Amino acid sequence: MGSILTFQPSIEKSGLDLIKSHFHVIELGAFSENPVIDAINRHQIVGIVTRTEKITEKLLASTPSLKFIAQNGVGVDNIDVDAATKYGVQVLNVPNSNYTAVAEQVVMSVLVLNKKFLPYHQAMKHDDYDVRERIVGTEVVNQRALILGYGQIGQTVARMFKILGIHVTAYDPYLLSSFVQAEGVSHLKKIEYSELKAFDIISVHLPLTEHTHHFINRTFLDSLKESAIIVNTSRGGVVDQNEIDQALKQGKIAGAALDVLESEPPAIDDPILKNEKALLSPHVAGDTREAKVRCAHFVFENIKDYFQNKIPRNLINLNVLNRKEEDE
Ligand SMILES: NC(=O)c1ccc[n+]([C@@H]2O[C@H](COP(=O)([O-])OP(=O)(O)OC[C@H]3O[C@@H](n4cnc5c(N)ncnc54)[C@H](O)[C@@H]3O)[C@@H](O)[C@H]2O)c1
Questions:
Q1: Residues β-bridged to residue 239
Q2: 24-70 pLDDT tens trace
Q3: Which residues of 38-67 are buried (b: 16+ CB within 10 A; e: fewer)?
Q4: Spatial CB neighbours of 242, under 8 Å, sequence gap ≥ 6
Q5: Domains and CATH numbers, the chain
Q6: Which intervals hold domain D-isomer specific 2-hydroxyacid dehydrogenase catalytic (predicted)?
Q7: Which residues of the chain carry a pLDDT beneath 70?
Q8: Of 110, 147, 150, 236, whose CB has the highest number of CB atoms within 10 Å?
Q9: Could you list the active site residues?
Protein backbone atom coordinates (compact mmCIF):
# COMPACT_ATOMS: atom_id res chain seq x y z
CA MET A 1 0.00 0.00 0.00
CA GLY A 2 1.44 3.39 -0.98
CA SER A 3 1.74 6.53 1.11
CA ILE A 4 -0.43 9.66 1.17
CA LEU A 5 0.86 13.22 1.25
CA THR A 6 -0.88 16.09 3.06
CA PHE A 7 -0.03 19.79 3.26
CA GLN A 8 -0.43 22.64 5.73
CA PRO A 9 -2.99 23.92 6.48
CA SER A 10 -4.29 20.39 6.73
CA ILE A 11 -7.79 18.96 7.11
CA GLU A 12 -9.86 18.74 10.30
CA LYS A 13 -7.98 16.82 12.98
CA SER A 14 -10.37 13.92 13.71
CA GLY A 15 -10.57 13.11 9.98
CA LEU A 16 -6.82 13.38 9.55
CA ASP A 17 -6.29 11.14 12.58
CA LEU A 18 -8.67 8.59 11.05
CA ILE A 19 -6.70 8.62 7.79
CA LYS A 20 -3.43 8.30 9.70
CA SER A 21 -4.77 5.37 11.71
CA HIS A 22 -5.47 3.40 8.51
CA PHE A 23 -2.83 4.58 6.03
CA HIS A 24 0.74 5.81 5.95
CA VAL A 25 0.65 9.61 5.79
CA ILE A 26 3.55 11.98 5.18
CA GLU A 27 2.82 15.54 6.29
CA LEU A 28 4.53 18.37 4.42
CA GLY A 29 4.50 22.09 5.18
CA ALA A 30 2.91 24.62 2.84
CA PHE A 31 2.45 23.47 -0.75
CA SER A 32 5.10 24.48 -3.29
CA GLU A 33 5.10 22.73 -6.66
CA ASN A 34 8.70 21.59 -7.20
CA PRO A 35 9.36 20.34 -3.64
CA VAL A 36 6.01 18.50 -3.78
CA ILE A 37 6.97 16.81 -7.08
CA ASP A 38 10.26 15.76 -5.47
CA ALA A 39 8.49 14.44 -2.36
CA ILE A 40 5.92 12.46 -4.40
CA ASN A 41 8.68 10.80 -6.44
CA ARG A 42 11.01 10.23 -3.51
CA HIS A 43 8.34 8.53 -1.37
CA GLN A 44 6.42 6.96 -4.29
CA ILE A 45 3.29 8.74 -3.07
CA VAL A 46 0.00 7.24 -4.32
CA GLY A 47 -2.42 9.94 -3.15
CA ILE A 48 -2.48 13.58 -2.06
CA VAL A 49 -5.05 15.43 0.03
CA THR A 50 -5.75 18.92 -1.31
CA ARG A 51 -7.99 21.91 -0.76
CA THR A 52 -6.72 24.98 -2.62
CA GLU A 53 -3.31 23.71 -3.80
CA LYS A 54 -2.88 24.19 -7.55
CA ILE A 55 -2.48 20.78 -9.18
CA THR A 56 -1.10 21.42 -12.65
CA GLU A 57 -0.43 19.26 -15.70
CA LYS A 58 3.29 19.69 -14.96
CA LEU A 59 2.88 18.10 -11.52
CA LEU A 60 0.70 15.30 -12.85
CA ALA A 61 3.06 14.55 -15.76
CA SER A 62 6.07 14.43 -13.43
CA THR A 63 4.65 12.07 -10.77
CA PRO A 64 3.92 8.61 -12.25
CA SER A 65 3.29 7.02 -8.82
CA LEU A 66 0.38 9.39 -8.11
CA LYS A 67 -3.01 7.65 -8.48
CA PHE A 68 -5.52 9.87 -6.67
CA ILE A 69 -6.17 13.41 -5.46
CA ALA A 70 -8.56 13.56 -2.51
CA GLN A 71 -9.99 17.08 -2.50
CA ASN A 72 -11.21 18.33 0.88
CA GLY A 73 -14.09 20.31 -0.66
CA VAL A 74 -16.66 20.42 -3.44
CA GLY A 75 -15.04 22.67 -6.07
CA VAL A 76 -12.09 21.17 -7.94
CA ASP A 77 -11.14 24.25 -9.97
CA ASN A 78 -7.66 24.17 -8.39
CA ILE A 79 -7.03 20.84 -10.13
CA ASP A 80 -6.38 20.31 -13.85
CA VAL A 81 -8.96 17.50 -14.04
CA ASP A 82 -8.39 16.82 -17.76
CA ALA A 83 -4.68 16.34 -17.13
CA ALA A 84 -5.45 14.11 -14.15
CA THR A 85 -7.60 11.92 -16.41
CA LYS A 86 -4.84 11.90 -19.04
CA TYR A 87 -2.30 10.65 -16.51
CA GLY A 88 -4.67 8.14 -14.90
CA VAL A 89 -5.15 10.04 -11.63
CA GLN A 90 -8.54 9.82 -9.90
CA VAL A 91 -9.98 13.12 -8.62
CA LEU A 92 -12.23 12.63 -5.60
CA ASN A 93 -14.28 15.36 -3.90
CA VAL A 94 -16.73 15.60 -0.97
CA PRO A 95 -19.99 16.90 -2.44
CA ASN A 96 -22.40 16.28 0.44
CA SER A 97 -20.50 17.79 3.28
CA ASN A 98 -20.98 21.55 3.53
CA TYR A 99 -24.05 22.63 1.55
CA THR A 100 -26.04 23.53 4.70
CA ALA A 101 -23.17 25.64 5.99
CA VAL A 102 -22.93 27.56 2.71
CA ALA A 103 -26.70 28.01 2.42
CA GLU A 104 -26.89 29.37 5.98
CA GLN A 105 -24.21 31.93 5.12
CA VAL A 106 -26.18 32.99 2.04
CA VAL A 107 -29.32 33.56 4.11
CA MET A 108 -27.32 35.45 6.73
CA SER A 109 -25.76 37.67 4.03
CA VAL A 110 -29.12 38.44 2.45
CA LEU A 111 -30.56 39.46 5.82
CA VAL A 112 -27.51 41.46 6.92
CA LEU A 113 -27.49 43.44 3.66
CA ASN A 114 -31.23 44.02 3.55
CA LYS A 115 -31.53 44.92 7.22
CA LYS A 116 -28.51 47.27 6.94
CA PHE A 117 -27.04 45.47 9.90
CA LEU A 118 -23.43 46.52 9.30
CA PRO A 119 -24.01 50.30 9.12
CA TYR A 120 -26.16 50.05 12.26
CA HIS A 121 -23.47 48.08 14.06
CA GLN A 122 -20.70 50.47 13.01
CA ALA A 123 -22.75 53.55 13.94
CA MET A 124 -23.51 52.12 17.40
CA LYS A 125 -19.80 51.57 17.97
CA HIS A 126 -19.25 55.27 17.13
CA ASP A 127 -21.90 56.68 19.44
CA ASP A 128 -24.20 57.43 16.49
CA TYR A 129 -27.66 56.39 17.67
CA ASP A 130 -29.29 58.76 15.18
CA VAL A 131 -28.30 56.36 12.41
CA ARG A 132 -31.85 55.00 12.80
CA GLU A 133 -33.17 58.25 11.31
CA ARG A 134 -30.92 58.04 8.24
CA ILE A 135 -30.73 54.37 7.31
CA VAL A 136 -33.73 52.09 6.88
CA GLY A 137 -33.71 48.34 6.27
CA THR A 138 -35.79 46.32 3.83
CA GLU A 139 -37.94 43.21 4.33
CA VAL A 140 -36.99 40.16 2.30
CA VAL A 141 -40.46 38.65 2.26
CA ASN A 142 -41.85 38.77 -1.29
CA GLN A 143 -38.47 39.63 -2.78
CA ARG A 144 -37.41 37.71 -5.88
CA ALA A 145 -34.19 35.71 -5.93
CA LEU A 146 -32.29 34.33 -8.88
CA ILE A 147 -30.13 31.34 -8.01
CA LEU A 148 -27.34 30.70 -10.52
CA GLY A 149 -26.51 26.98 -10.47
CA TYR A 150 -29.20 24.77 -8.92
CA GLY A 151 -27.01 22.02 -7.50
CA GLN A 152 -26.68 20.82 -3.94
CA ILE A 153 -26.12 24.31 -2.51
CA GLY A 154 -28.48 26.18 -4.84
CA GLN A 155 -31.33 23.81 -3.92
CA THR A 156 -30.67 24.20 -0.19
CA VAL A 157 -30.60 27.99 -0.51
CA ALA A 158 -33.89 27.83 -2.43
CA ARG A 159 -35.55 25.86 0.39
CA MET A 160 -34.33 28.37 3.00
CA PHE A 161 -35.37 31.36 0.87
CA LYS A 162 -38.87 29.96 0.46
CA ILE A 163 -39.25 29.70 4.23
CA LEU A 164 -38.51 33.44 4.35
CA GLY A 165 -41.21 34.11 1.75
CA ILE A 166 -38.73 34.85 -1.04
CA HIS A 167 -39.84 33.83 -4.57
CA VAL A 168 -37.14 31.73 -6.22
CA THR A 169 -36.04 31.30 -9.82
CA ALA A 170 -33.12 29.03 -10.70
CA TYR A 171 -30.85 29.24 -13.72
CA ASP A 172 -29.36 25.86 -14.56
CA PRO A 173 -29.52 24.69 -18.17
CA TYR A 174 -28.43 21.18 -17.23
CA LEU A 175 -31.55 20.30 -15.28
CA LEU A 176 -35.04 19.25 -16.34
CA SER A 177 -37.73 21.86 -15.69
CA SER A 178 -39.91 19.15 -14.17
CA PHE A 179 -37.23 18.59 -11.51
CA VAL A 180 -36.74 22.28 -10.65
CA GLN A 181 -40.44 23.15 -10.74
CA ALA A 182 -41.35 20.23 -8.49
CA GLU A 183 -39.71 22.24 -5.69
CA GLY A 184 -41.90 25.26 -6.47
CA VAL A 185 -39.01 27.07 -8.15
CA SER A 186 -39.23 28.78 -11.56
CA HIS A 187 -36.69 27.47 -14.04
CA LEU A 188 -34.51 29.48 -16.45
CA LYS A 189 -32.46 27.64 -19.05
CA LYS A 190 -31.04 30.84 -20.49
CA ILE A 191 -30.16 34.22 -19.00
CA GLU A 192 -31.94 37.08 -20.76
CA TYR A 193 -30.28 40.29 -19.58
CA SER A 194 -33.50 42.22 -20.25
CA GLU A 195 -35.26 40.13 -17.57
CA LEU A 196 -32.72 40.64 -14.77
CA LYS A 197 -34.41 43.80 -13.45
CA ALA A 198 -37.04 41.54 -11.92
CA PHE A 199 -34.64 40.21 -9.27
CA ASP A 200 -33.74 41.61 -5.86
CA ILE A 201 -31.23 38.92 -4.92
CA ILE A 202 -28.67 37.12 -7.10
CA SER A 203 -27.07 34.13 -5.38
CA VAL A 204 -24.15 32.51 -7.19
CA HIS A 205 -23.63 28.72 -6.96
CA LEU A 206 -21.91 27.89 -10.24
CA PRO A 207 -18.70 25.89 -10.34
CA LEU A 208 -15.78 27.86 -11.78
CA THR A 209 -15.14 26.57 -15.32
CA GLU A 210 -14.10 28.14 -18.61
CA HIS A 211 -17.85 28.69 -19.27
CA THR A 212 -18.62 30.38 -15.96
CA HIS A 213 -15.51 32.58 -15.61
CA HIS A 214 -16.77 36.20 -15.16
CA PHE A 215 -20.35 35.00 -15.63
CA ILE A 216 -21.29 38.13 -13.67
CA ASN A 217 -19.76 40.79 -15.87
CA ARG A 218 -20.48 44.43 -16.60
CA THR A 219 -23.46 43.65 -18.89
CA PHE A 220 -25.00 41.45 -16.19
CA LEU A 221 -24.48 44.14 -13.52
CA ASP A 222 -25.79 46.92 -15.77
CA SER A 223 -29.00 44.91 -16.23
CA LEU A 224 -29.85 44.73 -12.51
CA LYS A 225 -32.01 47.11 -10.52
CA GLU A 226 -30.25 49.58 -8.20
CA SER A 227 -31.64 47.92 -5.09
CA ALA A 228 -30.37 44.47 -6.08
CA ILE A 229 -27.79 42.58 -4.05
CA ILE A 230 -25.37 39.83 -5.10
CA VAL A 231 -24.13 37.00 -2.90
CA ASN A 232 -21.20 34.96 -4.15
CA THR A 233 -20.23 31.88 -2.16
CA SER A 234 -19.05 29.81 -5.16
CA ARG A 235 -15.69 30.88 -6.55
CA GLY A 236 -14.22 34.37 -6.95
CA GLY A 237 -13.58 33.95 -10.67
CA VAL A 238 -17.28 33.53 -11.46
CA VAL A 239 -17.71 37.25 -10.73
CA ASP A 240 -15.67 40.02 -12.35
CA GLN A 241 -14.54 41.58 -9.06
CA ASN A 242 -13.36 44.84 -10.56
CA GLU A 243 -16.77 45.33 -12.21
CA ILE A 244 -18.63 44.54 -9.01
CA ASP A 245 -16.44 47.01 -7.09
CA GLN A 246 -17.29 49.69 -9.67
CA ALA A 247 -21.00 48.78 -9.76
CA LEU A 248 -21.18 49.19 -5.97
CA LYS A 249 -19.34 52.53 -6.05
CA GLN A 250 -21.52 53.84 -8.88
CA GLY A 251 -24.74 52.74 -7.15
CA LYS A 252 -25.67 50.33 -9.94
CA ILE A 253 -26.40 47.71 -7.24
CA ALA A 254 -27.03 48.11 -3.52
CA GLY A 255 -24.70 45.54 -1.99
CA ALA A 256 -22.60 42.44 -2.45
CA ALA A 257 -21.61 39.69 -0.06
CA LEU A 258 -18.44 38.01 -1.28
CA ASP A 259 -17.15 34.97 0.54
CA VAL A 260 -14.79 34.24 -2.33
CA LEU A 261 -12.45 36.57 -4.20
CA GLU A 262 -10.54 36.37 -7.45
CA SER A 263 -7.27 36.32 -5.55
CA GLU A 264 -7.17 34.55 -2.17
CA PRO A 265 -5.91 35.93 0.10
CA PRO A 266 -6.51 39.33 -1.54
CA ALA A 267 -3.68 41.81 -2.09
CA ILE A 268 -3.50 44.37 0.70
CA ASP A 269 -4.41 47.16 -1.77
CA ASP A 270 -7.31 45.26 -3.38
CA PRO A 271 -10.01 47.98 -3.75
CA ILE A 272 -12.79 45.59 -2.72
CA LEU A 273 -11.37 45.56 0.83
CA LYS A 274 -12.16 49.27 1.21
CA ASN A 275 -15.56 49.14 -0.47
CA GLU A 276 -18.11 49.81 2.27
CA LYS A 277 -20.94 48.18 0.36
CA ALA A 278 -19.06 44.89 0.09
CA LEU A 279 -19.64 42.40 2.91
CA LEU A 280 -16.57 40.17 2.92
CA SER A 281 -15.51 36.88 4.48
CA PRO A 282 -12.36 34.79 3.93
CA HIS A 283 -13.79 31.80 1.99
CA VAL A 284 -15.43 30.27 5.05
CA ALA A 285 -19.05 29.78 3.98
CA GLY A 286 -18.59 26.01 4.01
CA ASP A 287 -16.30 25.95 7.02
CA THR A 288 -18.50 25.38 10.02
CA ARG A 289 -17.14 23.10 12.73
CA GLU A 290 -19.64 20.41 11.72
CA ALA A 291 -18.92 20.71 7.98
CA LYS A 292 -15.15 20.54 8.49
CA VAL A 293 -15.57 17.25 10.36
CA ARG A 294 -17.90 15.88 7.66
CA CYS A 295 -15.50 16.93 4.86
CA ALA A 296 -12.48 15.31 6.49
CA HIS A 297 -14.39 12.08 7.20
CA PHE A 298 -15.63 11.93 3.59
CA VAL A 299 -12.02 12.40 2.44
CA PHE A 300 -11.20 9.33 4.52
CA GLU A 301 -14.10 7.35 2.96
CA ASN A 302 -12.91 8.25 -0.55
CA ILE A 303 -9.35 7.15 0.27
CA LYS A 304 -10.65 3.93 1.83
CA ASP A 305 -12.68 3.18 -1.31
CA TYR A 306 -9.57 3.69 -3.43
CA PHE A 307 -7.42 1.33 -1.36
CA GLN A 308 -10.20 -1.28 -1.25
CA ASN A 309 -10.22 -1.24 -5.07
CA LYS A 310 -13.78 0.10 -5.14
CA ILE A 311 -14.83 2.90 -7.45
CA PRO A 312 -14.59 5.81 -5.00
CA ARG A 313 -18.08 7.12 -4.29
CA ASN A 314 -17.16 10.68 -5.26
CA LEU A 315 -15.01 10.14 -8.32
CA ILE A 316 -15.21 13.29 -10.46
CA ASN A 317 -13.38 12.08 -13.57
CA LEU A 318 -15.14 8.80 -14.30
CA ASN A 319 -13.32 8.65 -17.66
CA VAL A 320 -10.15 7.81 -15.80
CA LEU A 321 -11.58 4.31 -15.32
CA ASN A 322 -11.81 3.80 -19.12
CA ARG A 323 -8.25 4.99 -19.40
CA LYS A 324 -7.18 2.43 -16.84
CA GLU A 325 -8.93 -0.34 -18.79
CA GLU A 326 -7.17 0.82 -21.98
CA ASP A 327 -3.83 0.53 -20.16
CA GLU A 328 -4.53 -3.01 -18.96
N1 LIG B 1 -17.48 29.22 -0.22
C2 LIG B 1 -17.35 27.97 0.19
O3 LIG B 1 -16.89 27.72 1.30
C4 LIG B 1 -17.84 26.86 -0.71
C5 LIG B 1 -18.18 25.62 -0.13
C6 LIG B 1 -18.68 24.62 -0.95
C7 LIG B 1 -18.81 24.84 -2.32
N8 LIG B 1 -18.45 26.04 -2.85
C9 LIG B 1 -18.61 26.32 -4.28
O10 LIG B 1 -19.99 26.24 -4.60
C11 LIG B 1 -20.13 25.65 -5.90
C12 LIG B 1 -21.47 24.94 -5.97
O13 LIG B 1 -21.45 23.82 -5.10
P14 LIG B 1 -22.56 22.68 -5.18
O15 LIG B 1 -22.25 21.70 -4.12
O16 LIG B 1 -23.91 23.28 -5.23
O17 LIG B 1 -22.18 22.05 -6.61
P18 LIG B 1 -23.09 21.16 -7.53
O19 LIG B 1 -22.16 20.48 -8.48
O20 LIG B 1 -24.03 20.34 -6.72
O21 LIG B 1 -23.98 22.23 -8.34
C22 LIG B 1 -23.50 23.04 -9.37
C23 LIG B 1 -24.67 23.29 -10.31
O24 LIG B 1 -24.22 24.21 -11.29
C25 LIG B 1 -24.75 23.81 -12.53
N26 LIG B 1 -23.91 24.34 -13.59
C27 LIG B 1 -22.68 23.95 -13.96
N28 LIG B 1 -22.22 24.72 -14.97
C29 LIG B 1 -23.19 25.63 -15.22
C30 LIG B 1 -23.31 26.69 -16.14
N31 LIG B 1 -22.34 26.96 -17.02
N32 LIG B 1 -24.44 27.42 -16.12
C33 LIG B 1 -25.45 27.14 -15.24
N34 LIG B 1 -25.39 26.13 -14.35
C35 LIG B 1 -24.27 25.39 -14.33
C36 LIG B 1 -24.76 22.29 -12.51
O37 LIG B 1 -25.74 21.77 -13.40
C38 LIG B 1 -25.11 22.01 -11.06
O39 LIG B 1 -26.50 21.82 -10.90
C40 LIG B 1 -18.94 24.67 -5.99
O41 LIG B 1 -18.54 24.47 -7.29
C42 LIG B 1 -17.86 25.34 -5.16
O43 LIG B 1 -17.02 26.05 -6.06
C44 LIG B 1 -17.96 27.04 -2.07
A1: 216
A2: 999 999 999 999 999 999 999 999 999 999 999 999 999 999 999 99
A3: ebbeeeebbbbbbbebebeeebbebbeebb
A4: 271
A5: 3-97+289-327 (3.40.50.720), 99-280 (3.40.50.720)
A6: 11-317
A7: 324-328
A8: 147
A9: 235, 264, 283
